[in-house]
Design a protein that fits this description.
With 410 residues, this protein is mainly alpha-helical. Helices cover 51% and strands 10% of the residues. The protein is globular.
């Protein structure tokens, strides 16, 4: 979807806030002015392909020469430099402030694909973050552009304003094959369920205690042990994943060994055994047991944006791209192979955990009201009610227990 095709939904009997059309117009004009559609740029970059001639990796010019030229134009960089950055990694020797010689090491085919995918994902992510920050800025009536407000622009815009926020959370995910994405989504659901327990059950108990009403123990399950299993310091699933990803030659086997050693006796964690199940483990979430396949956890967790490509984008001739990739970001990614200090890379797990912590802090500072959605069937069709599925959702969300409590002691 291009920015120019964005449209508003009209709800009969209501009137949109005045900034809605202004926000849409601003974003459309900005993208047209820079001649840059973030989604087109991202998809074009993802269409670049490589060929392997006995270990000699190069761009498949027959298949993707036009894509490379178009991608370079959209990024505002030289096509030959972009091609070089996709195929070779710059290595600079030296120690401390002394910088030595520069050499280049060719990527393997899989590494080149990873660099390409990292570029496509990063441009899409940063463009999305920019749009969110701009909407928040315009909604708050702030005149300072998001780029001048720093990375926390989306949070700062509401610092001095009263607000009503709507958090539409992703549902709990249990598929035939669950990977790193499902672990992150289900972790978020665990944290939000904990907030629900604390704000609803504990607040109800506190209210009855203040009123002198004697109530039996509600016995709702505290899921803090699962959250600790997932993000606990040093031994949590995500911290251990970051640790294994930093080990030279780190693998899912090493990751599983560390998890088993740390949580082998934890009832919420069960490693799967068998010829085809060595890379799997189960976690007993509040909504049910989920089996995760960890074979791709490490590559999915990496911050795969190449520092060499990032250096190119900082010097882009397209203002919007320069806005998405400020110069100070490059310093955090520069690595010198000789002992220089370098900032640790922000893995996907670290970024997700930090965002989840910010979200939790925001929720704790508000007075939340909850709307719990129940799926009537698993077929995603109307006019079909599955009593078993519905009852399961009511049960694991403790809604029946909560409703009974409020009804009995009203």
């Amino acid at each position: 979807m291009r920015c120019s095709s964005i449209s508003c939904v009209t709800i009969m009997g209501t009137q949109h806030c005045p900034y809605t059309n202004n926000t849409r117009t601003y974003i459309v004009r900005h993208c047209r002015h820079t001649n840059n559609d973030p989604k087109t740029t991202s998809l074009t970059g993802g269409n670049i392909t490589f060929k392997d001639d006995d270990g000699d990796i190069s761009l498949d010019k027959r298949a993707c020469a036009a894509n490379l030229d178009k991608c370079s134009e959209l990024f505002g960089v030289d096509s030959s430099q972009l091609e070089h950055a996709m195929l070779k990694k710059k290595i600079q020797s030296g120690r401390g402030d002394r910088r030595g010689s520069i050499s280049f090491r060719s990527y393997t085919h899989s590494q080149a694909v990873e660099v390409r995918n990292g570029l496509a994902m990063e441009i899409y992510k940063r463009a999305f973050d920019w749009i969110v920050a701009e909407i928040n800025r315009l909604a708050a009536g702030t005149s300072v552009p998001s780029s001048a407000m720093g990375a926390s622009a989306s949070n700062d815009t509401h610092a001095s304003h009263k607000m009503i926020g709507i958090l539409d959370i992703f549902g709990f995910e249990i598929f035939q094959k669950n990977s790193f994405e499902q672990l992150c989504i289900n972790l978020c659901n665990e944290v939000l369920q904990q907030h629900f327990n604390e704000s609803i059950f504990k607040s109800e108990i506190a209210l009855y205690t203040r009123e002198g009403i004697t109530i039996p123990d509600l016995n709702f399950n505290d899921n803090s042990d699962v959250i600790e299993l997932l993000i606990g310091k040093k031994t949590g699933c995500l911290p251990v994943l970051d640790e294994e990803g930093q080990v030279p030659g780190g693998s899912w086997q090493g990751y599983m060994n560390k998890l088993t050693k740390a949580h082998g006796s934890n009832k919420k964690f069960v490693q799967m055994f068998g010829k085809d199940k060595k890379e799997e483990f189960n976690i007993a979430h509040y909504a049910g047991v989920v089996k995760y396949d960890v074979s791709l956890f490490i590559p999915k967790n990496k911050d795969t944006l190449s520092p060499d490509i990032q250096e190119l984008l900082v010097d882009s001739s397209v203002p919007f791209v320069m806005e998405l990739f400020p110069a100070e970001d490059v310093d955090a990614h520069v690595s010198v192979a000789g002992g220089n200090k370098r900032a640790s890379k922000q893995t996907v797990a670290k970024q997700f955990s930090a965002q989840l912590a910010d979200l939790s802090k925001c929720i704790q500072s508000t007075r939340p009201q909850y709307v719990r959605c129940i799926k009537p069937n698993s077929l995603k069709v109307p006019h079909t009610f599955d009593a078993h599925i519905t009852n399961e959702q009511v049960r694991y969300r403790y809604l029946n227990r909560l409703n009974g409590c409020i009804s009995d002691y009203y």
